[in-house]
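Homework-ish question, so no full write-ups if that breaks the rules, but can someone show me the predicted structure for this set?
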Amino acid sequence: MGKILTMVSQRLALGLLTLFVVSLIIFLAVQLLPGDLAQAILGQSATPETVAAFRRELKLDLPAHIRYFEWLMGILQGDLGRSLANQREIAELIGGRLLNTLFLASIAAAIAVPLAVTLGILAALYPNSLYDRVVNIVTLTSISFPEFFVAYILILFLAVDAGIFPSISNISGDIGFWEHVYRSILPALTLTLVVVAHMMRMTRAAIINLLASPYIEMANLKGLKRSRIIIRHALPNALSPIINVIVINLAYLVVGVVIVEVVFVYPGLGQLMVDSVSKRDIPVVQACSLIFAATYILLNLTADILAILSNPRLLHPR
Amino acid sequence: MAQILKLLRSSPWSARFGLAVIVFYIFIATFAPVLTPYGETDIVGSEFEPWSAEFMFGTDNLGRDMLTRLLYGARNTIGIAFVTTCLAFLIGGLSGLLAATLGGWADQALSRVVDVLMAFPPLIFALLLLTILGTSIPVLVVVIAVLDSTRVYRLARAVAMNIAVMDFVEVARLRGEGLGWIIGREVLPNSLPPLVAEFGLRFCFVFLFISALSFLGLGIQPPTADWGSMVRDNATLITYGDITPLLPAGAIALLTVGVNFVVDWFLHKTAGLRDDQ
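A: Not a homework solution, just the prediction itself:
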C-alpha cells in the first residue's frame, strides 16, 4: 500500500508542477509580442505619452516576475483581471459560460462512455465477424472526420430535414434542466460521435489483448460461454486501460468543445475564447487557456492515478 | 514495379480506395488551374447562386465559383498541411533521433520540454500563440509544426532507443564514426517504417487541425481558397437544406479517410507496430 501512496503522490506533485509551468508559459507567451502589449493594442499611430499611460494602467512598468505572481495570486482568489475589449471583469464573463461548457461536456460523456464500452465489448465478443469489420471501418472513418463536418451533417438531417432538434443552441435566461438538455443535444451528439470511435477501439483492443492469456484459455477449456468469459474474466483486468482511455477522451472532449460550440453558437467558454482570439483580447485568451489547460491536465492526471489504482499487480503486491 | 503491382493486388479494398483517393487529390492539386475556366478569387456571379451548368456547385457568399474554390482549396489546404507535417518531422524526428543516440542530459532536457508542451491541449496552445503572433501562413505553419513535432519526437525517440543499443551501432561508435553517420546511416534507416506510418497519421492530424483553425476564422486567411474557411463562409446555406457547405467539409473528410485506410494497411503489413492507436 505504501508503494501506491508514493506513486500517487509523485504523480500529484508532477501534475502540480506541470500546472505551474503551463501557467508560466501562458503568462510569458505575451512577451513574444514585438514591442509590448500596450503598443500592440494601441497600434503604430499612438503617441508615446498614451502608450506610457496605458502601460502604467496595465502595470507593464513592473518587472515580469512581479506581474506573474500578482496575476497568479489574483487567479487563485478568483480575480482574472479585466477584458481589454469591453473593460468587464473576466470572471463575470466566464462564470456562466464555464458552467454551460461543463454541462455540454457532461451530456456528451453520459452518452459516449456507455455506448463506446458496450460497442467495444461486443466487437471483442465477435472478433473478425462482419459486425467487427463494419465497426472497424466505421470508427476509422469517423475518426477522420472534422468535427464541423459531423456537426453540419447532424444539423442537415436532424434539424433541417427532420426538424426534431434546434440547429442553434439558444441557451439564455432561466430555461429548465430538460429544456437545456434538449437544446444542447445536437452539439452533445456531435462530440459523442467524435470521441466514441477511439474509446471503442481501445476497449476492443484491451479485451482482445487479454484473450490471449493462459487464464482465459483455462476458462475456455472449462467450457464457459464466451460472453461469460469476457464479462466476468477479461473485463475486470481490462478495466485499467479502459478507464485510462475514457478519461483521456474526456480531456479531449473538453478541448473539442471549442469548435462544436462555434458551430452551434452555444454560449460556452470555447466560443468566448475564439471571439477573444479574433479581437486579440489577450487577458481573456490567457484566462480561457488557463482554464482549458488546467482541466486537461487534471483529467490526464486523474487518468494516470486511476491507472495506478486499478492495476491489480500494484494493488496486490507479492 | 512488378513487386509494387503484386503488393497492390494483395491489398484490401479499403487500402486501394485510400490510394485512389490520394492520387485523385494530388492530380487535382497539380492541375487546378487547367481544370476550371475561372480564377481562384474571381467574382463571377451573384452571391449564393444555385447549382447550374455554368457554375457546377453554384457560387459562394461573395459570388465566386464554388468548384473553382474547391479545386484551388485542394492546392492550398493540402500544400500547407504537407509543408507543416514535413517541418514537424524535421524538428521532431531529428531531435528524437538525437535524444536517443546521445542519451544522458541531452535526452533528459529535450524530453522534459516535450512533456510540458504535450501537457497543453494543442488547439488551446495554438489559439494562444495565434492571438499573440497574429494569423499569417508562416506563423501558422511554424506554430503547428512545433506543437506537432512533440508527438513525432516521442515516437522517433522510442523507436530509435531500441536501435541505438544494438551491436552494429556500438561497432560504428568503436570505429569512430561521427554522430551524423550514426544517426543517418545506422539508426535512421532502421527506424523508418514506423516513422512513415506516423507521417500519414500526422498529416491527417495537421490537415484536420489547420482546417479547424480556418473554420474558426483563425487559420488560412481570405481571399486564399481553403476548405475550412469555405465551410465557415457558406455555413448559412445549411439551414435552407442546401448541401453545398458540406462539399469542402466532405473533401477534407474523404482525404483523411483515404490516408487513414492506407496507414491502417501499412501498419498491418509492417507487423502491427502500434495497433492500439
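Now go work out the reasoning yourself. Hint: The longest helix of chain A spans residues 226-263.
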